[in-house]
Write a structure and sequence with these properties.
375 residues, alpha/beta, 6-stranded parallel sheet, 13 helices, 41% helix, 7-stranded parallel sheet, Rossmann fold, binds ligand GMT, 13 strands, 2 domains
Amino acid sequence: MKIAIVCYPTFGGSGVVATELGIALANRGHEVHFITYRQPVRLELLSNKIYFHEVNVPEYPLFQYQPYELALSSKLVDTIKLHGIELLHVHYAIPHAYAGYMAKKMLEEEGIIIPMITTLHGTDITLVGKHPFYKPAVTFSINNSDVVTSVSENLKQSTLELFNIKKDIEVIPNFIDKRKCNPTFTDCQRSLMATDEERIITHISNFRKVKRIPDVIQIFNNIQKQIPAKLIMVGEGPEKEGAERLCEELGISNKVMFLGNSNEIDRILCFSDLFLLPSQTESFGLAALEAMINKVPVISSNAGGIPEVNLHGVTGYLSDIGNVEEMAENALKILKDDVVLEEFKINAQKAALEFDILKVLPLYEAVYEKAYLAM
Ligand code: GMT
């Protein structure tokens, strides 16, 4: 099929999922067109099966807010016509589903009928979408998508609770590609980060409030009082400065490394012993899954869809949001004993394999086929 994918091009989970999905679809022979305002961060190679079309929004002084939705829907119409695209898959409801619906309607005027699949990712529902200023438009765009998918059962239930949804929502979880996790990888530069005695603990996110960054620091602070350890913080965002200050106040700055955004997540996870994800809410927790496939157990909150990924007592432990004491105690249970750590590492990777792209991709393809045939 010729498929257009609309997503955010950033390091955020929805952009990563959309990009990895597009690459996998291209590997299966589909022609994939990414339509967004910048080349997606994980999209390194363009080919005769992968195209990128940039959405430009010309600045005009009259507008306090530049009309991105308008530019996106126009770009969709042009690209779909030019390349004979057969299906539109939008990731993140706001404003992509809304712009996609407008494009569909414009194309219909010209006799072109194209199905639109909307994938809900989390914050488009639980944080931003439910705001009264957006809610009617989000409800409308979901109800007017041809197929709606959500990345976890929990997100599906939240969507049904928060919005008046008349469509079925199919759950298609986030995924990883086990083939990208190379078992013969020998370039794991652990010694650059820590001594042999130290455990390495990692957190990766966009450092937004929802990630509860101060909790990450407090959990680590409690751990390092008991065992030698280092914390690696990967990502950029509004909470980073405060986190650096908190480390100084606690006197642990020499044990915490802030690496900024990275495209080499696997290289960092290969030497990590534990991953921390104490989020306020998380529709799925792709970062946890990426840790698990790299044999890294997870200490997390039990928020949202995280329990569908991190299995309590098996791949890590879950605690109530904000219970940093318990999270640190659980972390120590895993980290203090080499045998226990190894057991959790193996369990984490085994559980992550359930989300391998080879299992998840056919679910998307089935949805595409159903939507296409229904037109
Ligand atoms: O976690 C973020 O803040 C980024 C966000 C996004 O919209 O890109 O991630 C969401 O989508 C990911 C991919 O489906 C999920 O794995 C994340 O759990 C979800 N984040 C939240 O629900 C907070």
